[in-house]
Write a structure and sequence with these properties.
The complex is a heterodimer.
Chain A lengths: L2 E3 L4 E5 L4 E3 L2 E3 L5 E7 L5 E7 L5 E3 L5 E5 L4 E6 L8 E8 L7 E3 L3 E6 L1
Parallel strand pairs in A: 2-12
Antiparallel strand pairs in A: 1-4, 3-9, 5-6, 5-10, 7-8, 8-9, 10-11, 10-12
Chain B lengths: L3 E4 L2 E4 L4 E8 L5 E7 L6 E7 L2 E5 L6 E7 L2 E7 L7 E8 L7 E2 L3 E5 L1
Parallel strand pairs in B: 2-11
Antiparallel strand pairs in B: 1-3, 3-8, 4-5, 4-9, 5-6, 7-8, 9-10, 9-11
Chain lengths: 114, 112
């Protein structure tokens, strides 16, 4: 079965600084990969996804992620963080050929200081 | 209304009550999902419906009973719940089982 690890439970960055959130997965083949963001009291919003093709994926709100097969990673990046980016971020993995059975990481809570 | 909506947003119930959570999607999708989000735990998939047919039951206790009358609506009927069932229940939908899931805002359930 696939698994997802988000090693950082909580990260604090200053507004304007760069951000990288880590995600590692365990799966025998190339999975479908997702990053979602959840603001307090809200549902999950899709930031970006990787199914195949170009390993650098652009998403909404200025986020990008890079799929690195050799490292089994799909890290999320943003060059300059805004205070409104404070939220919880979830990495998710789906089996190849289906996005229905997603396995989520435990999430990384991002705090942005002014 | 657009996207995925869920009602109620907050629910407090006793262990002997019966209540239902409602999810409606306005995206023309064919697949719908229920998830449970508990504190300190990963999001857990509970049920999957595709074209109104249940395709996944992730070993969920029978005190949770899903219903999908059509591709736009999904219900979660609750009865004789336990305090450990308190959580945020999220609904999601996707065009099909191969496509991206879009989530609703969730129902915050508290079981007393």
């Amino acid at each position: 079965a696939q698994s997802v690890t988000q090693p950082d439970i909580h990260i604090t960055v200053s507004e304007g600084a760069s951000l990288e959130l880590r995600c590692n997965y365990s799966y025998g083949a190339t999975p479908y990969l997702f990053w979602y963001v959840q603001s307090p009291g809200q549902g999950l919003q899709l930031l970006l996804k990787y199914f195949s093709g170009d390993t650098l994926v652009q998403g909404i709100k200025g986020f990008e992620a890079e799929f690195k097969r050799s490292q089994s990673s799909f890290n999320l990046r943003k060059p300059s963080v805004h205070w409104s980016d404070a939220a919880e971020y979830f990495c998710a993995v789906g089996l190849t050929g289906t996005a229905s059975k997603l396995t989520f990481g435990t999430g990384t809570r991002l705090q942005v200081t002014l | 209304e657009t996207g995925v909506t869920q009602t109620p947003r907050h629910l407090v119930m006793g262990m002997t009550n019966k209540k239902s959570l409602k999810c409606e999607q306005h995206l023309g999708h064919n697949a719908m999902y229920w998830y449970k989000q508990s504190a300190k735990k990963p999001l857990e998939l509970m049920f999957v419906y595709n074209f109104k047919e249940q395709t996944e039951n992730n070993s969920v206790p029978s005190r949770f009973s899903p219903e999908c009358p059509n591709s736009s609506h999904l219900f979660l009927h609750l009865h004789t719940l336990q305090p450990e069932d308190s959580a945020l229940y999220l609904c999601a939908s996707s065009q099909d089982l191969l496509d991206t899931q879009y989530f609703g805002p969730g129902t915050r359930l508290t079981v007393l």
